[in-house]
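Sequence only, no structure available. Ideas?
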Amino acid sequence: MSTRGLIRTFERWRRSGEPMVLATVYETIGSTYSKAGHRILIAANGDYQGLVSGGCLEGDLAERARSVMESGEPLAISFDMRDEADDLWGLGVGCNGLIRVFLQPLTEAEDYQPFSDIARGLLEATPAVVATVIAGDGGDGLPPGTTLVWNGGEPQSGSQQRLVPGCRDARAAGSAMYRRESDGAAVLYAPIKPVRRLLVLGAGLDAVPVVNMAAELGWRVTVADHRPAYLEKGEFDAAEDARLIDPGRMSREVEPDRFDAIIVMSHHLMTDQAYLEQLADVQAGYLGVLGPKDRRERLLSALGAAGERLQGRLKGPVGLDIGADDPESIALSLLAEMHAVLAGASGKTLTAAD
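Reply:
I predicted one. Tokens follow.
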């Protein structure tokens, strides 16, 4: 399940007032389905949203979660799948790794913390770091389950101040870190990566699969167009926002600086030119324009100085070479490239890395 889907499930379950459990992977060794910092939620009835394995460990996690709800105390558990004998027990995991998971109770009385704050951080544009104490230092300052969602400010609790240096290190590294501090506390520091935002400038029929697939990935999607008929005809229920705009006022009406990825696809040369002129200084992680290379070059040339600022940043043609030849496969190609660029990945086949 996507991060956005996990948050939606959390909101739905929270309305019931029933307790939940937050399961967080805090350490892995070898090959595992998920890595440190990955989270899933487990409901009071044993239902779960998200996966820490391919589906073989979640049933056991749900059973353990029941005892955590009853006791109100967190629990650290380990699954060692490095022995091929797991087939004898019917698990058939085959991951050849060790995974350690931390279970924390979430209750209405505590406003379902810490996941309430984590969810808020995932939806905000400012990256944060979650510090979770897995094993305490033996004192009263940082017992297991102590959690700090740090966004650069000063913690309200003085004892949590000790977690700030680790948060800074994790933010600088851009990845989760599990370590034992000098005072004896074992802590997971996991950066929060906000849900990605995509701006689709153009609401033609080929924009529909782009919006739907991006929403399925859990991205927050805005689609905008200057033609009312296009917005009315398109199926954009999956978009967080679908709006009618004036192309010349796009930057004021949709605030493109808040998006991680932007695709220009109005299929109208002058409209695309108006959009790109306003995007020349927008530092989105991904910026592309639909169409062949010569169309992109024509647009850049017509933009003059703004086009020069877009050189090297504006992608076009867009997408990975997968033989796309219809709106759905083109959308798949485009989103695969977006995902790779935003994740800092190569976009090559995993087999090529062997």
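The two ends are 28 Å apart (CA to CA).
Hope that gets you unstuck.
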